[in-house]
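User:
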Amino acid sequence: MQMTQQQHGELERVYIMIGAVVMAMAGDGLETTRLRIAGFIRGELARTQAWSPEMETAMLSAIETLEIYPDHEVVERHRDGGDWAL
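Assistant: Predicted structure:
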């Protein structure tokens, strides 16, 4: 079954929401959790070529941000629907 443009867009929005949750968790200072989540995202990115270039960029940005501990300002902007690029 081929994914429609709308379905693809909806899937990306779901991952954006998940990203906001992940970044909120990362703000709690749980280094092990942050690194495990970054590892999971890295594994998903490597396992499939199904991601759009924009989604790959967002996932790589999330990995980088998780690994260097985000500023709370970035987390809040992301959660409030501002720039979704982390």
